[in-house]
Amino acid sequence: MDSPAEARIDLSAIRHNVALLKAAAGGAALMGAVKADAYGHGLVGASEAIVEGGASRLGTAYVREALALRAAGVTVPILSWIITPGEPLDDALTGDIELSVCDEPMLDEVAEAARRTGRTARMHLQADTGMSRGGAPLAAWPGLLKRAAELQAEGAVEVVGLWSHFACADIPGHPSIDLQLDNFELALKMADPPSHVMRHIANSAAIVSLPRSHYDMVRPGIAMYGLSPIPEQGDFGLRQAMTLTAQIALAKRVPDKSGVSYGHLYVTDGETTLGLVPLGYADGVLRHATGRVEVLAGGRRRAIAGRVCMDQFMIDVGDDPLAAGDEVILFGPGNQGELTLQEWADNLGTITHEIVTRLGARVPRVYER
């Protein structure tokens, strides 16, 4: 181990998860969402496994993420969906990046880039069907369609997709789900798209729970990495891909009633052995993990002892043997007795997405095929 910590990424698990989701989607195509460094799993390495697993397309939040994939030799179609003024649109078009557009000013900016580069911009128009985040409100949708049709007649753009995004697909039975699907149907009816235009709205949760939402393409994110999109309904056969480990940097005996770490929130109950784990909140181990999660060391779960610091935290192993260089597993698939990512999320009152995407650049991703 060149680093004192590493995130081991099981690529076979990612391939398994993508194949499972593709089967669940029936005949719909699959676009793998690889935004935020592939949810912390490493953009290029994870993307290659996602394509190997059966994804025909990839999706990123930002153009710069898509361009990084192109620079790494990834050739499948890529959609970027957060386009702000000043984005490198010329580079996006020359790199064959598809773009999402949800208002007329951005549509015109993309068209200008198409004229400059001589490349027809392939775009997906996004409708806001009830999330009130990205997308054109239904009142503005006809105007966006009209302007897109004008630019398409000119040859500046080609509309290849129509899409939206769920707000509550991970809450089965939420009334907004049917309302959003009805609104999406309305948006599609207004557009009257030809058969080659892809219709897509389904995220991970919708893939496993809402067959009506699959349309022509689905867009899994968190589920590809083996993390359940609806935890209360189980794991759906998904396999967690990431295991976070570290080496003990220091092991030492301390006396009874020793205060540990900032604020002395933890005080030893008798003479004991403490171990220093070289990961902290700068690496993505949330500060409020203090006293709330356990790590696996010496074959047993150990609570974090005292405040999580920027670069390190302590564990108390009592009289058990511990030495510098011993491995600690913070989380993994659970097959060695360690906590899973879902257990971490539950104990910290958050979602797995936040934990994996916070994992910092100091922690190398090590790929296991």
Description of the structure:
By secondary structure, this protein is α/β, with parallel strands linked by helices. The protein folds into 2 domains: 215 residues, Alanine racemase (TIM Barrel); 127 residues, Lyase, Ornithine Decarboxylase, Chain A, domain 1 (Beta Barrel). It has 11 helices and 20 strands. The strands form 4 sheets. It has an 8-stranded parallel β-barrel with strand order 2-3-4-5-6-8-9-10, surrounded by 6 helices. Helix 9 links the parallel strand 9 and strand 10.
What is the tally of beta strands? 20
Task: Kindly state the percentage of residues in helix.
Answer: 25-40%
Mean pLDDT: 97
- The CATH superfamily label of the largest domain reads Alanine racemase
CATH class of the largest domain: Alpha Beta
Task: Give the class from helix and strand content and strand pairing.
Answer: alpha/beta
Roughly how many Å is the radius of gyration?
Answer: 24 Å
Q: What does the overall shape look like?
A: elongated
Looking across the biggest beta sheet, what order are the strands in?
2-3-4-5-6-8-9-10
Tell me the fraction of residues in β-strands, as a range: 15-25%
The total tally of domains equals: 2
How is the main sheet built? Answer: 8 strands, parallel, barrel
Low-confidence stretches: none
Q: What would the CATH topology of the largest domain be?
A: TIM Barrel
Treating each run of at least 4 consecutive H or I residues as one helix, how many helices? 11
CATH architectural type of the largest domain: Alpha-Beta Barrel
N- and C-termini, Cα separation: 17 Å
